[in-house]
Amino acid sequence: MILTKWLTSRRVDLLLGGSVTVAAVSGLVSWGVGSGWARWVTIIHALAGLSLLALAPFKLRGSVRTGLRRRRVTRWLSVLMGVLVLATVVLGILHATGLWHGVGYWSALWTHFLLAALLAPLVVWHIASRPGRPRVADLDRRTLIGGGAAVAAAGLAYGVQQLVVGDNRRFTGSHEIASFNPAEMPTTMWLNDRSPRVPVSDWELTIAGEPMALEALHARAAPLQADLDCTGGWWSRQSWDAVSLAELMPPVDAPTLEVTSLTGYSRLFPARDAGNLHLAVGYNGEPLRRGHGAPVRLVAPGRRGFWWVKWVSRIDPIDRPWWLQLPFPLE
Fold it and tell me: Could you tell me the pTM of the whole model?
């Protein structure tokens, strides 16, 4: 084949490095963004991942076969990296098609993300340890044609995948689960967060330094339909019994609102977004369940699930810029 002759080991490594980089960056962005433009980032992520599969045969025919013949001890690290790459891409496909959602807390998407994180240092080591590293001169017409062919093959595979999936996926790639059925909505926690066991009668909520009675929230709550889009790979639409923060907050000059959970988990929001942030005390006319944030949680339409702070205990106006925080909390 012409492509086999054109795509030398260095050219293949250059294309693989580009695909891995695009897949990693687009994956993180699509994982964290809940607005409509995330659809295009999700498509780019899919094309980058499927391009790795399209380029894999050229990698196997070239440097992989040569490297295994040399019988270096480090060849097993390279084999491990290849296995992890394959497993990561396959898990992504299984999640995207809905053929496998995972087991319990470990969804296919979470496992996909975990394997990608484990891959990062191996990819850096693999590139740094190669004697024949890709050069700028390798980015020539033949490389671009080969890369275009890989992307075209990825695009064809993505089109077939979308025919299989249908309309079940949201633009973030998440699958719909238990809409308007809160009893079946999954219960998930962010990293090491834990559900507090404090009686509702002892719950203390303060807004801008002033105590707020939960009874007052229940009295003012009104139905609000909003989609909770979890980074575990699912989304669910519920009718939340909620009150807008714009109705609860006094006039403040601070640029940022800090919403804090009783667990210590917190997120920062622009104060100007108070009208699109809500405190929910129930859904579909029934109280929240403890695993879903009872007795009061934040509802933040247009943001991914880790912004929807559970078990809210404080909302404080602060002077710190809202963007001065980790994009993905580590608590």
Answer: 0.82
